[in-house]
Structure prediction request, 172 residues.
Amino acid sequence: MSRIQVVPNSKEFVLNRNDFIVSKTDMKGIITYGNKIFIEMSGYGEKELLGKNHNLIRHPDMPRIAFKIAWEMIQNKQEFFGFVKNLRKDGGYYWVWANITPDLDTNGNIIGYTSVRRKPNPKALEIIIPIYKKLLEAEKSGGMDSSKTILMNLLEEKNMEYNELIIALQGV
Ligand SMILES: Cc1cc2nc3c(=O)[nH]c(=O)nc-3n(C[C@H](O)[C@H](O)[C@H](O)COP(=O)(O)O)c2cc1C
Prediction:
């Protein structure tokens, strides 16, 4: 039996509580490794994933600012946390609570990136989905400057750093 659950009458696929999706990329975000659950959840075969840009599974509902923050943080050797909606090969989707970290060599140089994802807290998604919708709408009319302003205002209002908010929402 597959470990993946499908929400009836929807295109949504849900991770099991104990599952971890793992993938690795090179410096440019080209996939170099994916574990079994990553392959299953994406709906692609391993050969179709390896060597492809990780944006292969980018969902159009994701605001661009989320990835901009991710790349800025990991390129600065910081770890990133985020809620991400991913697109499957069959047009379905799945949400994850993601962590991305840089892989460093013994001299501290970035040689690639690793991401581990878990099932997101459904209560966090209730909060995140309308925020992403607002950020996406802002990007459509005013570009990433608009979505960045909205996000910065939200963090200021909550008096939190980006990762702090994301971790608090997941409730870990
Ligand atoms: C290790 C790693 C894992 C990533 N995982 C995902 C992912 O699961 N889904 C996704 O949409 N983007 C992921 N990204 C970000 C993509 O590289 C990309 O920035 C994003 O899909 C947006 O596409 P774009 O940069 O072409 O706009 C990941 C990046 C790295 C370095």
User: Anything to note?
Assistant: Helices lie at 36-42, 46-49, 64-75, 122-158, 162-170. The pocket of flavin mononucleotide is lined by residues 23, 25, 29, 54-55, 57-58, 67, 84, 86, 100, 113-115 (CB under 6 Å).
